[in-house]
Amino acid sequence: MSPTDLWLLGHGITASPSPRMQEAALRARGVEGSYRIVDVTPDELGEALRRLRAGEACGANVTIPHKLAVAAACDRLEGDAALTGAVNTVVVEEGRLLGANTDAAGLEGALRGAGLWPAPGTDAVVLGAGGAAAAALLALSRVPAGRIWIAARRPEAARQLAERLAPVLDATPAAWDAAALEPLLAGAGTVVNATPSGLAGLPLRLDGLPAGCTVVDLRYRPRPVDLVAAAGAAGLRACDGLEMLLHQGMLSFRRWTGLEPPWDEARAALHAAVGG
Ligand code: NAP
Predict the structure, then answer these.
(1) What is the value of pTM for the model shown?
(2) Probe target for ligand 1 pocket from 195, 204, 245, with the most ligand atoms within 8 Å of CB
(3) 261 in the same domain as 188
(4) 84 and 19 part of one domain
(5) 77-131 tens-digit pLDDT
(6) Looking at residue 146, which CATH number applies to its domain?
(7) Identified catalytic residue from 20, 66, 67, 247
(8) Centroid of chain to Cα 82
């Protein structure tokens, strides 16, 4: 069998813990191969995709800022990638690029594993309107959640995301403003921070959340994630994005190798890579 060489296509991502996680998974399953960062600018992306089609690697993860551009370049998009127009996983099949997205399923796996999967009908607020917010909204659509609000610092971005996901989800744009969000947060069973901002930059007062509310922050660094620590200290259920990173990565691993992911080994490598 030829080596399973895999890429992480992104830009400015030298500190990603994914190579250590994926290489630990390959090793644990006895698969010869590598997983390495291929850092390219948007101008260099076309050449990188040409090399991928030519068989330099058998698959890739895709991250900031290339998820949309890679989706546009794929020969076929499946499932969530087709819905969101964003790809985080590419499988190379005889010179063709198949685009998938494991982020929403990764978040679902993480929340289910932690016992934090919302009960059907739970109201939810998602902060942010980028790729991670789209994944969170798709996951919520599968609960299915109750009323869902999207708040983003650019209202237009929240409106566009709600429109894009309208075929599978009824989400309402909300103002990026603590006073306006207060009544929505007061009834929320799940709140997701899908921005890179820490607690101080969010229109969120933890003492305004109901007891039993789950706070999910998709960031996983620096650790401990401030919002998660503060929510825990306030007696709320909370989790950061590390288990989501594990799950989305292992779902990609399964796509590339056809093997059951070695969850424990991959999790241990991921924790070692992020330092806790
Ligand atoms: P993205 O596509 O660039 O979207 C980021 C969103 O956050 C946009 O709505 C952006 O608004 C907003 N934003 C950026 N900086 C902000 C700030 N200082 N204050 C308020 N809003 C801000 O990025 P993404 O891929 O969605 O990633 C968002 C976060 O999720 C990152 O921290 C990332 O590390 C994390 N993430 C985690 C996982 C995981 O597996 N755990 C997976 C994906 C992402 P503008 O459009 O106005 O800039």
Answers:
(1) 0.97
(2) 195
(3) no
(4) yes
(5) 999 999 999 999 999 999 999 999 999 999 999 999 999 999 999 999 999 999 9
(6) 3.40.50.720
(7) 67
(8) 16
